[in-house]
Amino acid sequence: MSLTTTDSTLSATPSPKRAAGSGRTAAPTEVAPAAHSGVATFAHLIPKLEEYLTPSELKKVKEAYRFADEMHLGQMRKSGEPYISHPLAVAEICAEWKLDAQAMMAAFLHDVMEDQGVKKEELIERFGASVASLVDGLSKLDKIEFQSQVEAQAENFRKMLLAMARDVRVILVKLADRLHNMRTLGSMPPEKKRRISRETMEVYVPIAHRLGLNNIYRELQELSFAHLHPLRHRTLSKAVKAARGNRREVVTKIMESVTSTLIAAGIPAQVDGREKTLYGIYRKMRNKHLSFSQVLDVYGFRVVVDSFANCYVALGTLHSLFKPMPGKFKDYIAIPKLNGYQSLHTTLIGPYGTPVEFQIRTSEMHRVAESGVAAHWLYKDDEGSLTDLQQRTHAWLQSLLDIQKQTGDSAEFLEHVKVDLFPDSVYVFTPKSKIIALPRGATALDFAYSIHTDIGDQTTSAIINHEPAPLRAELHNGDIVEIITSPTSRPSPNWLGYVRTGKARSAIRHRLRTANQVESQAVGRRLLGNALHTLGIEPELPSHIVERLLNESSAKTMDDLYAEIGIGTRMAPLVARHIMTMMDTGVSVPQLDPEGHMLPNKPDPVVITGSEGASAQLSSCCMPIPGDRLTGYLKADQTLIVHTQECDTAKRLHEKEPDRWIELVWGQDLNRRFDCRITILIHNERGTLARIAAEIGESDANIVSVAMDDEGGNASMKYLRFTIQVEDRVHLARTMRGIRRIDSVARILRERG
């Protein structure tokens, strides 16, 4: 047995025979970021390319390099290096993945269209249509004028993602490009660093995770975190380095125990200590409100064995060595993650009572876990030989094309795609036991659309675990879901309020826009006409008002605007009030009291139900619930932000922009629950949190989140901060009265900002 120690990992090989694949070449992200400064010349790449390219292919790649070198001659990077160092570094990353000749050529040429104005036709003539298409998919749309930076960015992403859907090599080259840019971001101004890092975290990190490129995923996360929060990154880095020495004894003891136990069981395995990334530590501290020592007190190890069966044998062996923690076992081998990841996860109580997390997998599973789809298969015609991972990835890429067909604009497309990029998933079953993976929070209606768009459109009801359930019912791991359809059923605008997947949302909006276009326009025209009549304005608007109204909205024609009102994405009273401000007129129809005296001109309040979707949003600062007195702030894009009248934020905004505020009232029959925050000061006694949680459950309220803080350094007193869901103020008051009766509760109040 050999035991090796480094600053970041401990590894042991319990048998002279290493696990198959354990001696593979490390992926480029396993090298310390400081070592990445790009290669000096093309000659450095030749040995890597000769490993898998033919001489004729290598010659074509060299031609692409020479052309890129010529095009970028005299161009410098912000760091002061010649610009060609960037395409060389991108090509080096792609060569590690052994991408084919066309992808390597695109890696060298990816900036020539955008930076040097080279036409696509010239690339087709010199390098072929496939290479030109790859480069075009990687190029931004700088020559088109957009209304805003957000719109331009959304359209750029849409172009790239659609090119990726047609050929996955586009995103592989783009991720290599973004990785090198992030490694060399130090020379950029601080604001640009933050913008690029935020964009990387929101779009490229989830894409890398979705495609199973875990090395790239982790490094992009770390680099984004370092540039978004440099002080926090430096502080955590110092703390981790300081803690390593203290942890070494525990890690060594666990490693020796595991190694000797696996040898005794006759299981060839490689055991490695896994150290959490700085961003992983930061996220866990923030999300779970843990201290640094609490996060670092969980030790992680990876066990790579030689066969599928030995994964489960090793699991049983480890469970005989240390006691497993209940509810902390996950079998991602039987049910892989969406990106193809497979491992057994278990948490055990190790020496000194410390939790120890183990991942158990084969060498092939480990290769997929680290490299994902970074292989040249998807652009081949032979789909019959695709693995399960490749087929799932292919299906997801095809769904991007489906969303594109159903989506009105770039921002909407990007919104749908971002929803599907969240890594957390639930796994449910069809009645025939087929596994369907959906994002966390997905509903029965999302399930219907994941089967087929037509099934989603015709859904009438759902059966979950053999019991009738509403379409908005949230799905959980292991649920068996059956969908009931009817040929006469049609999507409802209300469905947009509770679907979670991009595919379902885009399909519903598309159906509402097309199949019900005429009906939606008629409904919207009538609603806006009624709202205008209430304000004393004729429905036939002057041409200059129509032109200005369309310029200030996303609608191209009045029919489009009527349709948006008809399907519920815009509120007719808000559009009418906006028209009134543009016409600079008040209510022309005189309002009289019972005695015949003229009343002041005052429009009726806008009714709020909480289900308006994107057109009206409940403010997160004061969290209004039914029974609160409301006021509304109308943003420039006509989105309504709903505040309570007592909200301090609303009061400050009202002083700055008094003309943007309108009167609101709650509607009747509000068939939903609303979030609100309560703060409870407690005596820190055993079982208090459990009694409070039980009382909240007894009052029929839902707990969304809970956090705990010290009360001014007093260890005997704690603040508990709950976000709960209630029906209205009466329901909240009943819940708070129940909590107040608990002996260890000193004070309770509702947070309003």
UniProtKB/TrEMBL annotation:
Transferase listed as a keyword: yes
Cellular component GO terms held in the UniProt record: plasma membrane
InterPro entries: ACT-like_dom_sf, ACT_dom, Beta-grasp_dom_sf, HD/PDEase_dom, HD_domain, NT_sf, RelA/Spo_fam, RelA/SpoT_AH_RIS
GO molecular function: GTP diphosphokinase activity; guanosine-3',5'-bis(diphosphate) 3'-diphosphatase activity
The entry's keywords: Hydrolase, Transferase
Annotated Low complexity bias: 1-16
Every ACT domain range: 677-753
Coiled-coil boundaries: none
EC nos: 2.7.6.5, 3.1.7.2
Gene3D superfamilies the UniProt entry points to: 3.10.20.30, 3.30.70.260, Beta Polymerase, domain 2, Hypothetical protein af1432
Region (Disordered): 1-31
Domain TGS: 424-485
BP terms from Gene Ontology: guanosine tetraphosphate metabolic process; nucleobase-containing small molecule interconversion; response to starvation
HD domain location: 83-182
Signal peptide region: none
Family, similarity comment: Belongs to the relA/spoT family.
Function, as annotated: In eubacteria ppGpp (guanosine 3'-diphosphate 5'-diphosphate) is a mediator of the stringent response that coordinates a variety of cellular activities in response to changes in nutritional abundance.
Name of the featured protein: Bifunctional enzyme: (P)ppGpp synthetase II/guanosine-3',5'-bis pyrophosphate 3'-pyrophosphohydrolase protein
Organism: Herbaspirillum seropedicae (strain SmR1)
Gene designation per UniProt: spoT
